[in-house]
Design brief:
Length: 280
């Protein structure tokens, strides 16, 4: 039976959901910033033999409605999907931004069955203290270059896409207006998330998690990073390990797994990601 598309419209922010079916305990899948529920299409079928699997478009993304990025309101969105489908205490699996939502979900549900966070602990555009193994002068220069890259991306998001570019993206990730076609989320919401302190660093919250949690870390750079930005990423990963591992050392309900792939692990390594979820 093919996945079923559902719109939950009886609430302040409309939510678009894909029900992949399956049997067993429920799993709810949350994509990253700029993604959609399509992100999980290769992983979800690998989970349905053991789980009931549902994926959702986060607010401001895909076919879901617009709303400010308020973490508690986003958690209410997640709860609305759970209630709509009658899911009984799902494991929440999130990638990147979705993983940050999963951490907040774990804090709200300390007695829940747990979460899986897929490389969703720290934004690359974060405070210098969150990097490790790199000199201050080099770090300052690389952070300035990274900011310029993100600023250029933000400026581009505020303009209509060229037709050739829009044609390369899934329709679910686009919004059409009289002025042209824009990517989702819109530039204002992306900026709000970009500068949110919790988006920039989620690790501090990990110590307060009481339910089981698996943190899956990338080991490689994203391919095609511009300029010298790629030189910054090993320092970011080193900082995540430095700050995360002491929090998990004496807390057996918190586990860490490293996958030999990049931040785009869901697309690159769907089988390994599925196995991580199944073996949590």
């Amino acid at each position: 039976m093919p996945p079923q598309e559902v719109i939950i419209g009886d609430r302040p922010v409309r939510l678009a959901v894909r029900d992949h079916g399956g049997s067993g305990s429920p799993v709810l899948l949350l994509h990253g910033l700029g993604g959609t529920l399509l992100h999980w299409d290769a992983v979800a079928p690998l989970l349905t033999g053991a789980h009931r699997v549902v994926a959702m478009d986060l607010r401001g993304h895909g076919l879901s409605g617009d709303g400010p990025w308020e973490w508690e309101a986003v958690l209410d969105d997640v709860q609305a999907v759970i209630d709509h489908f009658g899911l009984d205490a799902p494991v929440v699996v999130g990638h990147s931004l979705g993983g940050m939502v999963a951490v907040r979900w774990a804090l709200r549900h300390p007695d829940g069955p747990g979460i899986v966070n897929l490389d969703g602990l720290r934004s690359a555009e974060t405070a210098p203290r969150h990097y490790a193994g790199i000199g201050q002068e080099e770090l300052t220069a690389l952070l300035a270059e990274l900011k310029a890259v993100f600023d250029a991306q933000a400026e581009a998001m505020a303009r209509p896409l060229p037709e050739t570019h829009a044609a390369m993206l899934p329709q679910r990730a686009l919004h059409t207006t009289d002025e042209g076609v824009y990517v989702r989320p819109d530039a204002a919401l992306a900026r709000q998330i970009r500068y949110d302190p919790y988006f920039q660093d989620t690790i501090a919250a990990v110590a307060d998690i009481r339910c089981p949690a698996l943190f899956v870390l990338a080991t490689e750079n994203l391919p095609g990073l511009p300029g010298r930005v790629g030189e910054l990423m090993p320092a970011l990963r080193a900082g995540i390990r430095r700050d995360l591992l002491p929090l998990t050392a004496d807390r057996p309900h918190l586990r860490v797994l490293e996958l030999a792939g990049s931040h785009n692990m869901v697309a690159e390594l769907p089988e390994q990601v599925a196995q991580a979820v199944l073996g949590r």
